[in-house]
Amino acid sequence: MLNAKNAFARRGVDEQVDTLQAIKDGITDVDEHAASEFKATIGRLDEANDRLQGTLRRLRETIIDASLQGSQVDEDSRDDGDDTQAGVDADRQAKTLYSFIDEENHLLVLGSLHAMIDSFNDARADLNQDVHDFQNSLKAITDIMQDDVSTASGSGPSDKRTLYDEPPPSIPQLFHGLEEHAAEMATELQSLVSHYDLCVTALKHTEGGGQAAKVAVQAEELKSAPGAEESLYGRTVPEQISQEEKVQMMDVLENDALQVEDVAAELRDHAAEMEQQFDALLRHVNSARAGNQRLRSVFQLLLQASDALPRHLEVSKTFRGVWQSIHEEIRAKTLELVELADFYERFWVSYSRVTDEVERRITAQAQMRKVASKAQRDLDKLHEAENDLRDTFLQDVGEHLPRDLWPSVGQRAPRWHVSPADA
């Protein structure tokens, strides 16, 4: 009955352990799924960060052209070899494109990303610790159940069996063996009793046998407790038998006397076998009781696991919520890194166009200066020619014209000068 109860309880425990294991596997799946998503998300984040760092490295390596610093540089100043101007240019050339960006933009984004990664690692560490505790509680149960199965099957560490060993006898087989041995012993005891009774009869029909039996009984009574066997002298008056019957009786006694020791040895063998089978039955009983005690301890562990189950589920739910929040934030910050990288790349590309624009403007300025110089020379020639013509006119008619007729007749020609409009 106890074995039947234990077997029923084991099946129930196995079902409960399978259920708990399925729950634990579900929590582990949450962790593995989040870890997989986290790895893919970090991969995209690393790509965006590598792109940004590469762009920032190009900005640090790109030195600003001196012509872009300070006031506008004309063609003459580009050819000027003045030491002071060269020192100023050297200071200006020390600046790079990185000097013109606000590094707090990407540093803040990277700092927030590091904080989110740390938050995820902390949340996952809490989940892993909880899963570890859950696994330990399941392992404690399964270890006890495995020990119980090993003990019940007789395959414990104390009695290792091989394929060639016969299986140990079951409880019904042991009981059947005890019954067989008991039946054999009863038969053999009956034969001894019959031989004993025949011996008593023979003694009573032997001269002096009755008195000898009486003395033997009295001596045995002194050694034994009250109520000892008195069958040797129980019947004082023997039954009358013929001489032929007496001879037959003596022949039977003689033949049976040769088998008494063998029968006694068989009785001892049967008793020894029954002792071994009884010991085996006791081992079965002790094993069943020990298995019942193990199952009771397993029930206590199951109750503890049941009490801890809501906490395990809550930790898993909290971790899933934390990861979803962190996942969205990392995606948003990754997009910010991509946008920053795009902006800095456009800045770097724009700078290459700026240097071309500087060269173009310097060239245009030189062309305008050249045109202005030529125009100034032409104006100077026209001014000089105009003054010569005025002098010639005065020489020809000046003595004949009164001054009050044209007061400005002797003025010099106005001088024209070409200069930048914003000078």
Q: What does the model show?
A:
This protein is 78% helix and 0% strand. The protein contains seven helices and no strands. The protein has two domains: 2-162 and 306-370; 171-283, no CATH class. The protein is mainly α and 423 residues long. The chain starts with a helix and ends in a 26-residue tail after the last helix. The protein has helices at residues 2-61, 75-79, 83-93, 104-152, 171-204, 209-223, 243-397. The protein is rod-shaped, with a radius of gyration of 62 Å. Residues 71-81 have low confidence and may be disordered.
Total of domains:
2
| Proportion of beta-strand residues | under 5%
Largest sheet: none
Instruction: List the secondary-structure elements in sequence, H or E.
Output: HHHHHHH
Distance between the termini: 117 Å
- Average pLDDT rating: 82
**Rg over CA atoms:** 62 Å
Please tally the helical runs, counting DSSP H or I stretches of 4 or more residues: 7
Structural class: mainly alpha
List low-pLDDT spans: 71-81
Write down the overall geometry.
Answer: rod-shaped
Helix proportion = over 70%
